[in-house]
Write a structure and sequence with these properties.
mainly alpha; Glycosyltransferase
Length: 344
């Protein structure tokens, strides 16, 4: 039997992403289902880990060709066309994380140059939604800003800003506006919790609000370890995985995979390997693909789907643990603080 510390173990997941990807490069959740830009990028990152550089480039090219004039993408597409008018800041920012991950693995600076105009206008859209307090509003819809901010989304944006700054530096563009935006966002996430969930019920019952600030490098060192320990028993079901919502008996494979990355980032390797080892029981024996999640009180998989982004998340977790590629340290470093002068 091939062990999970071998890249070959994930071959079916990799082939599944390739199977779902359209000739134009788009990667839907499943064949002929919806696409959202964040999950599209997550799946593309799985392709890069698997050495599928050509197909990953095609996925980024799809983003380039479908970007709106203001730098954004719509939150959902069906049959290649937008199916809603909402533009989420987190979705638009994630291209920076995807491109930096691509570069870490391939060292293809020419493709970064090709994609830079797309990245630049995307990050300008994201920064345009930053308030004077430092938080970044979660979306625009029909040209109206939806005035609230999310901890998970802003944490992901923080990581994307970090990656974007690195790309600007490598290509010798000035990232000053992004550096300022990143600094303000971090201060807000750490010191101004009242800026988040202002117009809806707190999302603190969602596990992503717990581990994303750790995974994305906002909460670090001893504070990060304390944060993870403080709610471990609320979200972790021993032998199964990480719950999506604290008060629901539902474990998801993608969120458990992201938690693995967060654990690796704070040096909790033993815990990371243990959580990751639980996830492989949730493969469909017919095709060896991961289900979205498992309702353990009912012993049922739910929803009945096997998304490409779940496959991507598992590949990212596996890489962070077993170091298949140079991208394994994507979430383990603060890349934007480095000096890249003279980089080839």
């Amino acid at each position: 039997m091939i062990k999970s510390d071998s890249l070959n173990f994930y071959e079916d997941s990799l082939n599944y992403i390739l199977e779902v990807q359209s000739p134009e490069g788009s990667i839907c959740w499943e064949t002929n289902e919806k696409l959202d830009p964040w999950d599209h990028i997550e799946a593309a990152m799985g392709l890069i880990i698997g050495g599928k550089e050509k197909e990953a480039k095609l996925a980024f090219t799809w983003l380039k060709e479908n970007q709106e004039e203001d730098g954004s993408w719509f939150a959902e597409y069906r049959n290649g066309k937008p199916s809603c008018q909402r533009k989420e800041s987190n979705f638009s920012a994630y291209i920076a994380t995807g491109l930096w991950h691509y570069y870490l693995i391939t060292k293809n600076k020419c493709f970064l140059e090709e994609m830079f105009p797309t990245l630049d206008v995307a990050m300008n859209f994201v920064i345009s939604l930053q308030t004077s307090f430092g938080d970044i509003q979660w979306a625009k819809e029909n040209n109206k800003i939806l005035d609230d901010s999310l901890i998970t989304a802003c944490s992901s944006i923080y990581k994307s800003l970090d990656c974007a700054i690195s790309i600007y530096k490598i290509l010798e563009y000035d990232p000053k506006h992004l550096v300022k935006g990143k600094q303000l966002l971090k201060i807000c996430l750490l010191d101004n919790p009242q800026r988040f969930d202002r117009s809806w019920k707190s999302k603190s019952r969602y596990s992503m609000d717990w581990y994303y600030p750790v995974m994305c490098g906002i909460v670090i060192n001893e504070d990060a370890n304390k944060r993870i320990a403080s709610r471990w028993d609320e979200f972790i079901v021993d032998g199964i995985g990480c719950k999506c919502v604290q008060d629901e008996p539902w474990v998801t494979i993608a969120e458990s995979s992201e938690l693995v990355v967060a654990l690796v980032s704070i040096g909790e390797i033993k815990k990371a390997k243990e959580v990751f080892s639980w996830l492989h029981q949730f493969k469909d024996k017919k095709d060896n693909l991961y289900w979205t999640g498992y309702v353990y009180t009912d012993d049922k998989y739910w929803p009945v789907e096997k998304p490409t982004w779940t496959a991507g998340a598992v590949l990212l977790a596996a890489d962070s643990l077993f170091e298949f590629t140079e991208g394994s340290k994507l979430f383990l470093e603060e890349w934007g603080d480095r000096d890249y002068e003279g980089t080839e």
